[in-house]
Amino acid sequence: MLLEIITPGKKIYSGEVQSVKLPGSAGSFGVLKNHAALISPLKKGNVKVVDEQKQHHSFPIKGGVVEVLKNKIIVLAE
Question: Which of 38, 41, 45, 55 is the most buried (most CB within 10 A)?
């Protein structure tokens, strides 16, 4: 599935991933392939990513919103 993390200044990540863990406003949650469609606000925390090569990445955010639709995840973050 494709993940894009976009801030007001630039795109900080774009690539195929196995899983993503997000700091939702009501608590952390994970997204795997074929996840149901969703839109959720995000709070301050880290977006944790496992890419296709099983490498782990972490991106700190101050908040934002995530959209998951048809194996594409778009994070609009501060």
Answer: 45
Q: Are 54 and 18 in contact (CB under 8 A)?
A: yes
Q: What is the pLDDT of residues 32-55, one digit of tens each?
A: 999 999 999 999 999 999 999 999
Q: For position 51, what pLDDT does the model report?
A: 95
Q: Which of 73, 69, 71, 61 minimizes the C-alpha distance to 25? A: 61
Contact 39, 66 (CB under 8 A): yes
Q: How far apart are CA 36 and CA 61, in angstroms?
A: 23
Average pLDDT, the chain: 96
Q: Is the pTM of this model over 0.85?
A: yes
Q: Which CATH number fits domain 2-77: 3.30.590.20, 3.100.10.10, 3.40.50.720, 2.60.15.10?
A: 2.60.15.10
